[in-house]
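Note to self: keep these together.
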Amino acid sequence: MGDKQIRAALDQHWAASDANDFETEHSIYLDDAVLEYPQSGERIRGRRNIQITRTIQPNRKRFTVQRIVGGGDLWVTEFILSYDGKPSYTVSIMEFRGDKVARETQYFADPFEASPARAPYVERMDTQAA
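Structure:
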């Protein structure tokens, strides 16, 4: 599968994630895909288990993709994942085998206040989530 097709599959995946379309969201994964959350120490094996763990999440989720970069078998998506309106700045690293994801690692970071000491040297970014 070429980069254009993978990019289209990623766009479909993140749109489905935002719409809570769990079937379409998880069609991007191989049956034996692995998802890791290093911050919580969790590893989830298998597309079915990945989908189950996401469908039982009780919070209202929204996904706002900031950018997608990659090529070949490795793709990175930066997005804001909001749970019940609380944003978490997230990075997803997806490793493809053919046209499906074999491994994904997600990292999450909470927002924090900017240091006043840096104010003269920085510009503010619009990082508001939907």
